[in-house]
Amino acid sequence: MRIGDLATAAGVTIKAVRYYESQGLLKPRRESNGYRAYDAEDVVIVREVKALLSLGLTAEQTYPFIECLRAGNDRADVCPASLTAYRSRIDEVDRRIAELTELRSKLTDLLTDAESWRTNQR
């Protein structure tokens, strides 16, 4: 199939397919006329990458999942490297939650202080 067919089948844009290819996530074969040719496995890979990116993983962090699929697994997340990537993303989310919690606490303290000052000025 051609790039437009792949994009439609996977629910992404042609631009996204080209980006995935530039990141080494897709490896299309070339037809004799020079056109890229994709197959059903590529549809699965693009859908997986799209899902992983929506979870905040970077293109680079999707490599273990893609390799897991290419190794013949039915799921992209059953390989040890995929599980490690999940753990790494969870750690990133936990760090971000901690940062946001600290920021919220600081803002709340500043708001409380400002409201108290304003009340005492009356």
Automatic annotation (TrEMBL):
Coiled-coil ranges per UniProt: 83-110
GO molecular function list: DNA binding; DNA-binding transcription factor activity
UniProt keyword annotations, A-Z: Coiled coil, DNA-binding, Transcription, Transcription regulation
One of the Pfam families matching this protein, by short name: MerR_1
Protein name (database record): MerR family transcriptional regulator
InterPro entries listed in its UniProt record: DNA-bd_dom_put_sf, MerR-type_HTH_dom, MerR_fam
SUPFAM superfamilies in the record: Putative DNA-binding domain
Cross-referenced PANTHER family: HEAVY METAL-DEPENDENT TRANSCRIPTIONAL REGULATOR HI_0293-RELATED, REDOX-CYCLING DRUG-SENSING TRANSCRIPTIONAL ACTIVATOR SOXR
HTH merR-type domain location: 1-57
Superkingdom of source: Bacteria
